[in-house]
Each structure stands twice: as C-alpha cells, then as structure tokens.
Amino acid sequence: MIYSSANICVDIAKADCRVCCGLDMAKAAEKAYYRFVVLFFNCMLTFGSYFCFDIPSVLQDQFQGKLTCPNGTLSNSTGNDTGGCVEGLGMTPQEYNLLYAIYAWTNAVVVIMAGFLIDKLGNRFGVFLFSFLTVLGSAIFALGSHFKGTTYLLPLMLTGRLLFGSGNGSLTIVQNRITAFWFRGKELALAFGLTLAFSRLGSVLNFFFTQRFESQYGMQWTLWGGTFLCVLGFLSAVTVSVLDKMGMKQLGLDGVIQEESRKVRIQDVKRLSLRYWVLVLTIMFFYNGIFPFIADASKFIQDKYSGYSQKEAAYIAGAVYDSSLVLSAAVGILIDYVGLRGVFAVLCAVLTLPVFGLLAFTFVPPLVSTIWLGITYSFAAASMWPSIPLVVPQATLGTAMGLATSVQMIGIGISNLVVGQILGTKSSDVKIPLWRWQYMMIFMLANTVSCIITSIILNIIDYKQGNTLNKMTKRSSAPSSVSQTDREPLVNEEREDNEEITDSPSINRT
After folding, report:
1. Of 344, 377, 362, which is closest to residue 462 (Cα–Cα)?
2. Full-prediction pTM beyond 0.85?
3. Could you please report the per-residue DSSP string of 331-395?
C-alpha cells in the first residue's frame, strides 16, 4: 500500500512536471523573442528573390547589347567611356521591358487565386509552393541566357520570369500574412518595415555587386548565382513554416484559424469595403512611379547625365533601395508610435512629385533624386501596406493581400508597357533622346498625381468610418476590439440561425 502510494506520488510529480513544461512551451510563442525569430526567417523568404528581380536593371546594357562586337570595340561598361560595343543578348528596349511587364502581369493573375488558396489551405502550403516557384523560375531564366542568338532565348526567359513572378508575388502575400498574424496589435509597422528592409537588402546588394560579378564571371553565372539565393529562400520557407506551426499550436489557434478559413468564399470579394479598394488604388498609383522607373533608371542616368559608367549608374539607381534599407525599421517604429497612416500616404505622394520633375527638366545630380525617392518610398511602404490588415478580417487577409498585389501588378505591368512604347523599340546602340525620357517622367508624374487624389479620398472615407488608419497600431487593434475586426462582412454573413461568433480564442491574440 505504501509502495502504491509512493508510485502514485511519483506519477503525480511527473504529471505536474509535464504540465509545467507544457505551460512553459505554451508561453514561449507569446514572448517577444519568438515572434521576432519568426520575423527574421520570414524576412529571409524574399531576400534572394528580390535580388533576382532587378538583375536585368543592373545588366540592362548586357541584356540589350549586341550579340557580337567587332574586334577592338568591345566594352565592359565599367569605365566612363560608354561609346564602345557591349556584347549581350541582343534584346530591344521593348523586349527588355517585357521581362518586367510579364512579371507584373503574371502577378496580377496568379496572386488573386494565390491569396484565396493561402486563406483556405494555410501559410505552410503557401511558403512551400511559392518559394519553389521562385527557384524554378529563376533557374529557367538563367538557362535561357545560354541560348542567346537563338529563337529559344526570349521564350525561355519570359517563361522563367512568368514562373518567378508567380512565386515571388504570391510569396510576398504569405510573408505579409505571417507578419500580420504575429504582430497585429503590437509592432505592426515596425515588422512590415523590417520585412521590407530585408527585401531591399537583396535589391541593394544586387545593385552593388551584380555588375562587378558579371564583369568577372559572365552573365550566365551571375543569373545562376541569383538562383542559388532563391534556394536559400526556400530553406527559410521550411524554417518559418515549422516555427509558425509550432507557435500556433502553442497558442491554441491553429484549429481556430482553420475553422475561420473554411468560411471564406471567393464570392465574398464583392463585400470588401470601399476604404479597402481606395487604399489598393493608392498603393497601385504610387508603385506605378517606382518600379518602372527603377527598371530603366540605370540607362536613363547614362543617357542623360555625362560621365557615368554602367556601374556608377547602377549604384545611383540602387540608392532608392539603399534609403529604404536604412530607413524602413526607423520609419516603422515612428508610424507605430504616431499612427497617421492616411496622412503619411498623402504626404508621400505629394513629396514624390518634385523627384520626377527634377529628373525630367533639370540636371541636378541624379543621386539627389534617387535618395529622395527612396525616402518617400520607405514612408509609403510602411504606411500603406500595414494599413490593409486594419481594414480586412484576419482570416481573409491572404485574399485581400492577393487582390491588392494583383491590382498593383496590373498597374505596374501597364506602366512597363507604356514606358517601353515611349522609349522606342529599336536597338539601344545609341542614346535614347532626352525628350523620350522626359515623356516617361511626365507619365510617372501623372501616376503620382493620381496617387495624391486617391489618398485624399482614402482619408475622407476613413475619417467617416472611425479614423482607423490614423490611429496607432495598438489603439486601432486593441484586444477589446479584436473580434470586431473579424466580424467585418467579408467573412461573416448574416446567418439564419443568428449564430454568434465567439471571441475566444481570438485569432488576433495580443
């Protein structure tokens, strides 16, 4: 009897130990360090893909260079003499811009269904599938460069960009969804800012090292190097998937989110609020002036301003991303503290206007304009994108992000095609006339003016609906109002049985 009691006591002690351990594990996911570890690997998802995205911008001369050069005229575009022949893939300016356009158009089509599938099937499905597509797309793109001078070159490279675009745009949606889940009601803008900073780090390193690497090892090995970085992104996808799964189980929210996701239907898109759609248009018009400019910025600088080599022009064009990299985290902290996301959206657009005016009609050093553009871009990214989780339900954030990305990419795709037409379709052996570049900048100005208009409308609508966007993150997503956000019409239809949605456990746990 005593032996039995002792066994019982031992068993109870072991059970208590297991319970205590379980409680410690349950608390781990609620601590700040856990969500920042998730954030680190989440940021690394798109580091390599953002590096790959703008490789054509840095190597624009090589992409549009001649297939062969006469003896004695070959130039590697690293010196100040830009009059030599650059050997490359022989693309026309229109074909070159098509590489960016097909990326944008693919995003526009794919991300809609991708966001919906992520909401239905979960983040882990998304990170595996879409990170794999970035690897596959970048590999096919690199493979296409081996077929220069053949009819296979352009189809292969366009196919690579198509698959790459399918993965990268959708991967960004998963990334934003994970960030919004772990940081909603906390350091939301800071988390989005750090995510952008890591992505921009890939872009910055691309502008600093790609041209130098290409001059030493050639274009093919440069493109395969980008593919390797996408593979590192895939490994990060595996890691963040494991961390996300463990954390959600510890919080007891995995089943809740799955239950909410089963309620999401594609028809619910029509229930998205007017405020959401105006916000999406604001994002689209702003980015219409950023990405198409960066795609052609290196050649623009060489054509308009004298004395710039390809490497120097790439550094100056990359200053947009340099500024964003340096400022993103600080800007995120600032916006988390003061709020005013709608106000910042207006200010960013207004302050971007002088940039394209300087580029079009003055000879002010281009570095001034690119740094200036990087500053406004940092504030825009940290104020606009984190606003989406504040105006849509958590369970359908993937769908909302997918639609926003789709509209954004439709606009960018159209802009790239328009820019390609403005700059002409002939070979780029000679400088593109200044008047063509000025027309391009005027087109950028028109998009920025449109952004100003939509951002003002956004603030008016938001003011009438509670001024959510201009409050601090923690105020606008306080625990007492968490469930209110998830009762927005997108997911919760009026039910005939008047069933109430419980607030516990909340999928927006703070």
Report:
1. 344
2. no
3. HHHHHHHH--HHHHHHHHHHHHHHHHHHHHH--S-HHHHHHHHHHHHHHHHHHHGGGHHHHS-GG
